[in-house]
């Protein structure tokens, strides 16, 4: 791909965003040439969507595609409107491997000089919709200015928020996965000039953050406008009516607040006395009595834990959308109450495993092929790479009890002090081989290498970002596709896997009926490459991990124990409130 003369600032802003340009075009051949000429400096591949233009414009577009090797033409058989053209461009971009698209109009209204600012904001917030916030000059027609204010008022009503400063500007960086998912879910999503405000409102409803960058917008003298005063105003009015009634259906959630905090911001579950009572019940009457008592206990917590409940519902909604998109058949009975209940059962399994109440072959079984993976590395220092999916603690307990194999687990204990106190009281052995850390660094690697050299196994969970704030935090986060959306993963576990001289095994313990099934597979962690090649190697490792994590999570979605917005990166450590 010939990227032309690359503007350093824009390329640095784009970084590893995997972003392209999408330009819808309907009879704007004359102005499109100047827009492409100014965009050539940024080194971004461009998809021009010919939205059923007249023959002269088609000829001009084909000539521009010949002139610029970084331009791909997507040709629609008939005019589908701005929204339809933009979505067609997004689909082509996603099929080409892009995760973000900067959409800019072909008529020259948008200030191309602000592209680096939008890209930089998108890199800082890759899960957000980044939109220009127009700064107009005297060229804007009065009727358009006043019409925009009317739309702003409606949008504020529809979102019950003033966070959306402008819903009409089409100069935006879109995260492609949530937009394309939304288009599949909402067949009547606006396809004409109603697209820009409707997609922003619906993405906001779905939990996609919206951020704004000031940008100059002009109305060129003699410019061609495709806005039809009658038809487009009717469409926009009908769109606002639909959104208003959609807001009424979402009223309780909008009033309660839709923000799901990251795990590092959440306080630990209170109720130390209640935990003790439940464990005494288990000790006295067994698991059946404990399970029966869980129904009202989990119901009470489900009703009171609003943030965790919203996170559970968000997770299950994402899983259903991704399963529909990929043709995956999900287990039955997926709801947030059962999700909470599965988490409570897993908490008991941790204690039951260390007490010897779970028996290998009866309560815990190996999935097909797991034994073949574990046998070659038996009695050798091995790194286990897991996740907050299922209960890896059961594996740790059974390995020590059944085979005498010590597994040291790296844990972030600051946000689970009460539960760790319960573990200490009822299963002291569970807390013996724990290595508490705040972030992964050279000191941690040295300790782990010593344990591996001594033949111990080390378990580390690769799905959460560390609480600590690295000096250059962006370099410690690697985004990878997960459930159809880019998700942030910590680079630390994968750098450790490539640095430590030991076999690496991917392991998940999922619940199937009343049994826990242990899934194991080898995980290739090649040594770290020279610095210039390191980001690509690291990205490849994280991508493989995310793919396998996704496949196992789809097998048992209720075993997902990340009760926060997994696709939102955490705040810096100084913004995190420590749990008391």
Keywords:
580 residues; alpha/beta; Spore Coat Polysaccharide Biosynthesis Protein SpsA, Chain A; seven-stranded mixed β-sheet; 20 helices; globular; disordered C terminus
How many domain regions? 2
Termini separation: 54 Å
From the alpha carbons, calculate the radius of gyration and give it in angstroms: 27 Å
The major beta sheet can be summarized as:
7 strands, mixed
Explain this structure to me?
This protein is an alpha/beta fold and 580 residues long. The chain has 2 domains: 8-253, Alpha-Beta Complex (Spore Coat Polysaccharide Biosynthesis Protein SpsA, Chain A); 263-575, no CATH class. The protein has 20 helices and 16 strands. It has helices at 8-14, 29-39, 55-67, 81-95, 115-124, 142-159, 176-185, 195-206, 229-249, 251-256, 272-285, 287-304, 306-326, 336-355, 370-374, 392-403, 417-426, 442-453, 492-499, 534-555, and strands at residues 19-25, 46-51, 71-76, 100-103, 129-136, 172-175, 210-217, 364-366, 382-386, 407-411, 434-436, 457-461, 477-482, 485-490, 504-512, 515-522. Strands 3-2-1-4-6-5-7 form a 7-stranded mixed beta sheet, with helices on both faces. Strand 10 (407-411), helix 17 (417-426) and strand 11 form a beta-alpha-beta unit. Helix 4 (81-95) crosses helix 7 (176-185) and helix 6 packs parallel to helix 8 (195-206). Residues 1-9, 265-270, 468-475 and 572-580 have low confidence and may be disordered.
Topology readout:
Blueprint: H1 8-14, E1 19-25, H2 29-39, E2 46-51, H3 55-67, E3 71-76, H4 81-95, E4 100-103, H5 115-124, E5 129-136, H6 142-159, E6 172-175, H7 176-185, H8 195-206, E7 210-217, H9 229-249, H10 251-256, H11 272-285, H12 287-304, H13 306-326, H14 336-355, E8 364-366, H15 370-374, E9 382-386, H16 392-403, E10 407-411, H17 417-426, E11 434-436, H18 442-453, E12 457-461, E13 477-482, E14 485-490, H19 492-499, E15 504-512, E16 515-522, H20 534-555
Parallel strand pairs: 1-2, 1-4, 2-3, 5-7, 8-16, 9-12, 9-15, 10-11, 10-12
Antiparallel strand pairs: 4-6, 5-6, 13-14, 15-16
